[in-house]
Amino acid sequence: MNIQLKPEQEQFIQSRIASGRYENANDVIALALKLLEEWEKGYQEWEEKTREKVAVGLAQIERGEVLDGEVVIARLEEKLLQARRSQE
Length: 88
Known about the structure:
Elements: H1 7-18, H2 25-62, H3 69-87
């Protein structure tokens, strides 16, 4: 595989090698790909959980298990107020 890097990407890789943390460009790229893989996995898990939560919420709406918007806003405002008070 032949990959073309932008000059700033090459400079970044060279700076990582110069820092002494990596021996060569392969080490930098291998770690970058590993981190990308981990990020993708985490994103997929987040997306799956979010879809599940949305499905639960939609089912609750269909059953009529909803709160008035003003009630929700009031509760959120109260939580914010309590959080601010606890930081003082």
